[in-house]
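Sorry to interrupt, but I need a hand with the structure work. Please put the record directly below this note.
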Amino acid sequence: MSAKVPVGRRARWVMELQQYNFEIIHSPGKENKNADALSRLLTMKKGKKPTMVIIDGVDGLGKTSIVQNLIKEWEKQGLKVRFNTFKRRRKDKEEFHKPKLETEWKFRKEVVEQINSRMLEYNKDTDIVILDKSPYCEYYYQKTKSFDRGLITPHGNHEMEKEIFRLKKLIDESVVIFLEKDGNTCWENYIGRETKKSEKSSYETLKKDEYLDMVKMFEDNQDMYKDTKRYSLVRVKNDDISWKKVYKEIENWRETLIKALKDIQEEIVKLRDKNRRLGNIKIEDWNEGEVLSIKEIQEEIIKAEITIGKTGIYKEILWKKGERKLRVIRKYEFEGLMYMMHDNELSGHFGMNATYEKMRERYYWKNMRKDIEEYIRTCWNCQVRGKPSGKSELHPIKIGEPFEVIGIDIVGPLNKTGKGNKYIVVAIDYFTKWAEARALKEATANEVTKFLWEDIICRHGCPRKIISDRGTHFNNKLMEKLTERCGINHRLSTPYHPEINGLVERFNRTLCESLARLRGQDWDRNVSSVLFAYRTKKHKSSNMQPFYVTYSREAKIPLDKDENKIKDVSRNCNIKTQCRM
């Protein structure tokens, strides 16, 4: 600003800023300890709550060194760090005080109160507080589910108790890091505890297999029982006290189960008389002396395809009836389903609304939108790569039919892949919102015209108008010959006003964010996958899928072919790509 006659870009900035009334205040360099502030943690201003990094996890080799390295890194940035720690069980032979375990709720409440008490101890001048695991969590780590991790990072089936969590807002605004040697063991243990029911070795296992079968049947088929008040209290809990309490209420579990089955006897008899699928077993034979196991009885009922109320069972899958048949998702299937519909390369890590709209067309469960929002909110890649959208003034472009107006642009240079690609040429139709893209080694006029000819003109026909910027890869004689030959009106945007071609600019951002979230140096391998995900999600402006607008039918996705694939993915999906550090 000290130049007497500013020219070039500086002159344009002077013209842009002269409409504002502001004062420039010099700040000494010694106060700017973090020059790269946009990509690092910011030092909080006075009067605001400190940035809190909560580090929680299990004991492991290298934990102390990890903490020290993190503290050194933050101190280099001028941040004040304090480490709240407790005595660890492996370093102290004295056992922690065992909390009362009369009910699961009371146990959770005591854990939360411990976390709250430690959080209230931070100093106002502290920028970062490193929080160690509470003694209650340490004591029960080998005996119960991961209540501590569920409370600190709520996702999946664990939902935090908002009524007793006084500092929930502080938690939501925090950066949560799992502190372990490799960063994945904690999450892997969590998945193993929740999905592999037959391999629960880290806490006390219930001893009655028949009891587990009975309770599972009650939970899966609650709507089939008329006496709901009696059976709604039956739940599996991972402590011996709860097991004894429930078992005492149902002293003769086989007799209780028989009564529940007889409650739906009329429906079973109707189906048996209709299709004779229950011909091998008689209702009156279901007594205490019957040799048949609970599992065999359950299989016979499932084979009968019983349909009661708003849900039905067909081939061991629960469906919700209505205008469109929706598969009912169970708790242990949630993680695998979200991986396929959000984290998978064919899903592209799209936002909450897009993921919800895609899933509600095929699946259903209680509190569906809330669970999806919680999952995406805790997705590591989405939080790291995400960016809030700003609203700009709307200037609609008149269009009359599909592929009449095409927007085209170049993205890059990006990181060089193994094939040598550094750029992406993208194009999008303003009517259908159908997107095309191709990875390029060089952004030349020859490559751009080749893309237009092969991927746009020969595939979708000649557009009436093409909108692009004034880059040399678009504004050249080769491009002029192609547009003149095909009768295309090539419109160039005004310099320094990319919003003229706003649709393609917004798609560029979506494409780059999705490729970054999928990770990997060879991003060009995922371009086609991200395009598929974009074409099969509902566009916000039209509330329709680009694929459906183009082909007048919905696209088939991998889960449509085999519904049982959800179960397999729930057990075997790659933990590293689940975006949970």
